[in-house]
Amino acid sequence: MIKLQKSTFNEIEHIFVSSCNRRYFSNNFEKKYRNCAQCEFYEIINYNLIVGGLILHDYDEYSNRIMFTIAISEEQQNKGIGKMTMKRILDYIFKDRKIRRIYIEVYETNERAIKLYEEFGFIKEGRLRKHTYKNGDYIDLFIMGLLKEEYMRKFYTGR
């Protein structure tokens, strides 16, 4: 049973550090999120074990959109946790928060994540070519988005 529990950057930092190299984390991720006043941090908990972290950020109240970043600890991957977490967070965003649009950035090399997002209806909306230096190479970054009506139609009306 997946549960999202409000947290702080410090409490979920180790999950994100393990999902990328330390240098990348320090130069990019940490600078963006450590002191982010508008970010919402969550621990992803499965049967009382912290298995991942999630950050809601870049909320634009006027346009009613939000972005999220997610990491599942390496030893907890391939267990369906990502899929259960996606359902939980998308229901929260679209049904409880009544947000109109959600989007995410994902590396082209993260094929499992791209497949998961597409299963939930996310569409590749953009590609930033050779955008990020990771593991000795420059890689592309996809921007993927999902609209509330697309999600509700797919998961709640059956059309």
Automatic annotation (TrEMBL):
Record-linked Pfam families: Acetyltransf_1
Regions crossing the membrane: none
InterPro entries: Acyl_CoA_acyltransferase, GNAT_dom
GO molecular function, one term: acyltransferase activity, transferring groups other than amino-acyl groups
Domain N-acetyltransferase: 2-149
SUPFAM superfamilies referenced in this protein's UniProt entry, alphabetically: Acyl-CoA N-acyltransferases (Nat)
Superkingdom in the source lineage: Bacteria
Name of the featured protein: N-acetyltransferase domain-containing protein
Species whose genome carries this gene: candidate division TA06 bacterium
